User: What shape does this take?
Amino acid sequence: MDLATKEKFKWKFYRLAVLLNIIILLVGIGILSLFWMPEKYLIPIVLLIGLLAIGLTLYFLGQYRKTREWLDHPE
Assistant: This one.
């Protein structure tokens, strides 16, 4: 793997790691908000956090598959 390819892989991996950490944080915040949010805001906030986590998960999976394909079949 040449230097430019290593650098490209490093940034692809970094982006995926950050996305995965955000997803994990959103799930944790969603679970905690079930217990600590006032009842008035509970359902909208939990739904919003859940939709964000699901959307980011789908985006993450797409980017992960693209990165795997790129690693398996380099240009």
